[in-house]
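Dear Dr. H.,

I hope your travels went smoothly. While you were away I took the liberty of generating a structure for the chain from your last submission, since the lab meeting agenda had it listed for discussion. I wanted you to have the full record in hand beforehand rather than looking at slides cold. The sequence, exactly as received, is reproduced here:
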Amino acid sequence: MELRHLRYFQAVAQEGSFTRAAARLHIAQPPLSRQIRQLEDELGVTLIERGSRALKLTEAGRFLLEQSLQLTARLDEIVQGTRRLGRHERGWFGIGFVPSTLYGFVPELIRRLREADPRIEVGLAEMTTLPQLEALKAGRIDVGIGRILLDDPAIERRVLMAEPLVAALPLRHPLARRRRLGIAELAAQPFVLYPARPRPNYADHVLGLFRAAGHTPRVVQEANELQTAIGLVAAGLGVTVVPASVHRLHRADIAHVPIDADTFVSPVILSYRKDDHSPFLADAIALAVQLANAEAAGVKQATASLSDT
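The corresponding predicted structure, in token form, is as follows:
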């Protein structure tokens, strides 16, 4: 399938007529009809019902129109952005991040970087730590914000903060009203582990913390997303361990209880290419350090207040 096939199909579907679509595309009608036939033959489905009445899309045709419009709109954005960069109208700065960091200082970091320089376009990509390193080396992003330390000679890493971990339990769980939970108590509960893949990831970090304390959690369910894991906890499948900032979700069906172990922390790590000396990157690192320090103080206070409730 070629892009022109999608453009031709979109024109026919939007105009409701081969004649009007041909005029819009500045081509003759017979070649346009052949292009649509080729698209249908390649897909193995009928996209347009042809008859004496007005042109009508099939169910497959309606689906392809909706999805392809999103695809070509995104492609148009990419083309325009590429042209701007090629004409040196704007620079590009890519940020990769793990979802759990969005409950802390990272949204403020993104907001301020986007406002910092109108000549720099800040792009965002949700990805776990291992894909971040690959994207950094390939130049697809300029910084990665993750939670596990992975060694790579081409990548510089900076631990911005060590965020306390807390237990997430169903609100009516017998341990939900405790001020603090011991590691042994937590390990004895059915455990929801996330993310399931790709590995290594935050799940391996949590399992490592339990092993270092001499315990192995009883994993009964795995989830790929933090929100899914929390939903499974709320449904009563088990308990899990989340960064303390996640309590800002204020879910009415979840209790967050501090863990009675100073070792149960999750680092927030900034990664970037060692050979990148751009001024914007230097400013981004300085801002990330500033915001992380403020966040660390706030999380410490918030975690203490959880113990008091």
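Two observations you may find useful: The radius of gyration is 26 Å. DSSP finds ten helices and eleven strands in the chain.

With kind regards,
E. W.
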